[in-house]
Specification:
The protein is α/β, with parallel strands linked by helices and 356 residues long. Helix content is 40%, strand content 18%. It folds into 2 domains: 178 residues, Rossmann fold, CATH 3.40.50; 156 residues, Rossmann fold (3-Layer(aba) Sandwich), CATH 3.40.50. It has 12 helices and 12 strands. It is globular, with a radius of gyration of 20 Å.
């Protein structure tokens, strides 16, 4: 870790130069170092998952939460947020976390389960920095320290409702699921979706495919491959495809538009974020994973000195941490049925599986 610290110092210097350059390029990440003069004491470091900001999904939702928190606490988003993304193969995840901590950003938020292998080491080396990991438990794969908080979600519950909606709306009795990377986390989306669809129609056919295998995170940032996989499902008889594939979901929407079928988005309300009326027309609903709310609440707790480190915070249907969007009005007519299933989940009548 001494080597990592040295690397972080060098990287921090590079970051300071990049911050100066951001005056000429508004698209660059904000932030001017932990000791810069800012409108508040809050200086948030945000380490993205694969693909970075602009995925219209998971990473963008995390940024929205940071932005909302900084603004509500009187900060300046151009000065008090530093954003960094891992390289293509993710080999520098430890370095970018150390870079943020070394530069004085606090708290530091890591977005995604792919930080599991690195955040514990970095947190141990920077005990005075408060860390949070979206989609990472403090006990997986090892205890990550008293200065780390896990921000977790019951993705299977929201995905169950997506499966209910798909089963109620399908006219072919075939639907599909496209996962970005075959990991235990994305399998929670799959398991919930299948269970929800089968709860409505036990004989429904659910096609399932992953864009990339475990360990290959390119499946979250390859819209072209996402389109090919989804197109195969539409060609095979599915008329609604649900994706849990990050930026690759754009390709799923494009396949749905080309086939005249429907798609279900994920994480954010993708009807609102996709930015293309032709694609909006095919996004039936989105499974909302309120990363924005979870991140905002964590930063607010940090500002109030009330973060309980070394613990996980689980966001589920009962806390509105997951759910469905109704933008576009495509599922308004089945809201009563969806609400009935949601109630059965929250009261314990239905236990949603987390594995396929």
């Amino acid at each position: 870790m001494r080597g990592m610290k040295a690397a972080a110092l060098l990287l921090a210097g590079s970051m300071a130069l990049a911050a100066c350059a951001s005056d000429e390029d508004d698209s660059a990440s904000g932030g001017g170092g932990g000791d810069s003069s800012a409108s508040s004491d809050l200086q948030v470091g945000l380490a993205y998952d694969t693909g970075g900001r602009g995925d219209k999904s998971f990473n963008d939702s995390a940024y929205a939460g940071v932005e909302a928190a900084v603004e509500s606490l009187g900060g300046d988003t151009a000065e008090d947020i530093e954003e960094v993304s891992p390289n293509d193969d993710g080999s520098d995840r430890a370095e970018i976390l150390a870079q943020l901590a070394e530069a004085g950003y606090n708290p530091v938020i890591a977005v995604g389960f792919a930080y599991d292998d690195t955040i514990a080491e970095v947190a141990a080396d920077y005990p005075d920095t408060t860390f949070a990991q979206v989609d990472g438990s403090v006990d997986s794969p090892e205890f990550k320290g008293d200065n780390v908080t896990g921000l977790l979600f019951a993705e299977e519950q929201g995905s169950f409702l997506a499966g209910v909606a798909a089963a109620l709306k399908t006219t072919t009795n075939q639907v599909g699921f496209v996962g970005g990377v075959e990991t235990s986390l994305i399998q929670k989306f799959e398991a919930g979706f299948v269970a929800g669809a089968q709860a409505v129609k036990p004989d429904i056919v659910v096609q399932r495919q992953y864009i990339s295998p475990a360990g290959d995170f390119s499946g979250f940032s390859d819209p072209a491959r996402g389109q090919i996989v989804a197109q195969g499902m539409f060609d095979g008889g599915a008329d609604i495809v649900y994706h849990a594939a990050g930026g690759s979901g754009q390709g799923v929407f494009e396949a749905a538009a080309a086939a005249g079928k429907r798609a279900i988005g994920v994480d954010s309300d993708q009807y609102e974020t996709v930015g293309d009326p032709a694609l909006q027309a095919v996004i039936m609903t989105s499974m909302l994973k309120r990363v924005d709310n979870a991140v905002e609440a964590f930063i607010t707790s940090y500002s109030e000195d009330s973060v309980e480190g070394g613990t996980d915070i689980v966001n589920d249907l009962s806390t509105e941490g997951v759910g469905l969007s109704y933008s576009g009005g495509f599922i308004d007519d089945i809201k009563t049925q969806i609400d009935e299933y949601a109630t059965q989940i929250t009261d314990g009548s239905i236990e949603v599986p987390t594995t396929p």
